[in-house]
Amino acid sequence: MSSSRAQSVLLSTPPSGRRDAEGTVAQDVVIRVENFSAAYDGQTILENINFVVHRHEVLVIAGESGSGKSALLRHLIGLEAPALGKIEVEGEDLTRAGDEDRLRILRKIGVAFQSGALFNSMSVLQNVALPLEMFTRLSPSMIELAALTKLQLVGLANEAHKTPAELSGGMQKRAAIARALALDPEILFLDEPSAGLDPITSAELDQLILTLKRLMNMTFVIVTHHLPSIFTIADRVILLNREKKTIVAEGDPAGLRDSSDDPWIRRFFGAEPRGASGAALTQMKPSAPAGAAQPAPTGAIGDPT
Question: How many C-beta atoms surround the C-beta of residue 41 within 10 A?
């Protein structure tokens, strides 16, 4: 483990947990990723990825453009199989599960994609009810009640009979979250929830995430490059780096910003201003080892992957 990552782990405060006989905090692990690698067309994009997600925390996956954030998310939710390693959900290996076990494991998670992926030919209520119709044996009246309850949770009960096209961007994000909640998952994955939203709507969505975490004791795994959201909602963050193809930092985002010994990590989290030329943070790259030549600035930090 790098000194930056080791230091940041020590800075991180556990969001919840129980104490063992010696009084040490022992947290429930709901997702464990071990020795994970991902590759497309024979080209490795992520390697040696190891981390856990604790119950009832908000874990943010961050990184520069092209660092593999969304690719990692797709593997975590079972859309793609890793080149190497394993992904465990509550102790069960998703990567090696048979069809029936795989479906049972995936019932524990809900996903809201960046685009929302709502069906415009259906009402908001029908969109939220769809998973219940497909995967439960509830009566139509019970399905409608359950769907309305989820819409009420996200503040959209009065918009139930509108189509997604009639909603604002922020409302569409909330509707997608309501549908992801339909089957009462234990873990909710959100892909770039703030993308395309104005600052006020983005801040309101952050508060919704924190409210759902508190009211429903939920665990969140969120891909985002939006720094205000990261500092508002994240209990921990893992930071991916495009060149190193792995996690270069892990911990409390404020701790990483203020105390990391890697200038690139501090710049990513906004600790250092732009240069005199006005070049954005996105022109920065991770620091090279001591004595090595510094690479020329390229790349962009903060763009969605």
Answer: 4
Q: How many angstroms separate the most distant Cα atoms in the chain?
A: 69
CA angle 226, 192, 160 (to 5 degrees): 120
- CA 108 – CA 99 distance, rounded (Å): 15
pLDDT at residue 292 greater than cutoff 70: no
Q: Return the domain boundaries, the chain.
A: 1-13+26-108+187-274+299-303, 118-185
For the 1-13+26-108+187-274+299-303 domain, the top CATH level (class) is: alpha beta
Beta strands in 90-168 (DSSP E): 92-93, 109-112
Q: Is the pLDDT of residue 11 over 90?
A: no
Nearest C-alpha neighbor of 86 from the set 29, 44, 38? 38
pTM: 0.80
Do 182 and 150 meet the contact criterion of CB atoms below 8 Å apart? yes
